[in-house]
Amino acid sequence: MGEGAVAMVRLSGPMALAIAAKVYRGTVATEKLAPRRVYTGEIHDSNQKLDDVLLTYFRAPRSYTGEDVLEITCHGGVLVTRRILELFLSAGARMAGPGEFTQRAFLNGKMDLTQAEAVMDLIRAQTELALRAANEQLAGRLGAELTEVREELLTTLAHVEAYIDFPEESIDPDTGKALLNRIRELIQKLDQLLATADQGRVLRHGLRTVIYGKPNVGKSSLLNLLLGYDRAIVSEIPGTTRDTIEEVINVRGIPVRLIDTAGARATTDEVETEGVRRTRQEVEQADLILQVVDGSLPRAELRLLEPRRSVLLLNKSDLGAHHDWKTTEGIRFSCKERFGLEDLNKAIWDRVMGGITRLDDVRVAINARHQACLQNARALLDTALHSLEERKSPEFVAIELRGALDAVGEVVGRVDTEDLLGKIFSEFCIGK
């Protein structure tokens, strides 16, 4: 709870109107409220007015939760908001748990589980791309694709179980081939969804990007340049940066968690040694490494990191390029002249998005829970495919297909998953 111009207290449930009637005074009695209209009124504590408020009523099932919902907008002071909340609690309401409003919306069929999770993604979105991906999921795009997969799975399972019940009909070669093709198509669709997992993780949590290199190559200058202000101390003295510094920037809609590290070198200084140890640890955990070198000096002995996880920046290009680097592939860069910045942004984008060139192309980005469920479904479908190819008993095929159906259903909440719901909604903020 914080101080603001206005605050909102929201009630949901069959007793919302009756509870509000105990503390709300307005020109229209609560039992005569028209849905979706805003009314002016007062909140009273006994016979004393506490605040002037606006009240809006949403009648079930046409509300966010699918229940009767009242939204009371009051002044946003900490004291007045807390007093109004206490009045509603004393009148018979109880505090909502984390994410309970969205959980009730799910349980009342207002959204599937992927849409419920998208609400939290929407709240936490740090960039336009993350916001757009969350809105796509909230609109039901992922749920629609998975519903289509479930329907195809049900059709396939029904065919196999029909053969189990009526074995005399047998599965002729043409029909068997059609089943194999259908399962292959389902596996392909799951692979396409699973391919978005890394993008989803980056959009939700940011690309963990470590700035790495020897002392005095311009790592801290690069951090300051990308942030747009002086965050790290820049000095010609080697070993100035002793600890990691972490900040988040927006690169073409991608949240990038930049981590500046201590210069990688052998040292006898105890504090700097700890900084170098942390540098190695950050490099191991990084999604992307920006390896910075001084391109104006001889290459000497330097181990270049594998290109798959790193981008090489030949910094200080304004001083001229040393001939040792002439044939080395990397981005010619200058923190002083801001040269190469667009090339770096493009390199980060290409590593994350894999060739996608427009924001509109990011339609679905699954999260870690979705990934685990879909990987399970894919493995079960793969087993069913091999069982069909080896002409095993159709009972085994049916078991694998049922398991895949349950795994896909778990993503959208089509199975009994009470423990799962508790975990998901525990991560929500109070009151959403």
- Order of strands side by side in the largest beta sheet? 7-8-6-9-10-11
The major beta sheet can be summarized as: 6 strands, mixed
| Structural shape | flat
What is the SS-derived class?
alpha/beta
Q: What is the CA-based Rg, rounded? A: 29 Å
Domain unit count: 3
Determine the N-to-C terminus distance. 13 Å
**Multimeric state of these chains?**
single chain
Beta-strand residue fraction: 15-25%
Q: Helix fraction?
A: 40-55%
Mean pLDDT figure: 83
CATH topology-level name of the largest domain: Rossmann fold
CATH architecture of the largest domain: 3-Layer(aba) Sandwich
Describe this structure in words.
This protein is an alpha/beta fold and 432 residues long. The protein has 3 domains: 6-95, Probable tRNA modification gtpase trme, domain 1 (Gyrase A, domain 2), CATH 3.30.1360; 116-196 and 366-426, Four Helix Bundle (Hemerythrin (Met), subunit A), CATH 1.20.120; 205-357, Rossmann fold, CATH 3.40.50.300. 45% of the residues lie in helices and 16% in strands. It has 14 helices and 11 strands. It has helices at 16-21, 78-90, 100-107, 113-124, 128-138, 141-165, 173-194, 197-205, 219-227, 270-285, 341-353, 368-389, 394-412, 418-426; strands at 6-12, 24-26, 38-45, 48-58, 69-75, 207-212, 245-251, 254-260, 288-294, 310-315, 331-332. A 6-stranded mixed β-sheet has the order 7-8-6-9-10-11, sandwiched between helices. A hairpin with a 2-residue loop joins strand 7 (245-251) and strand 8.
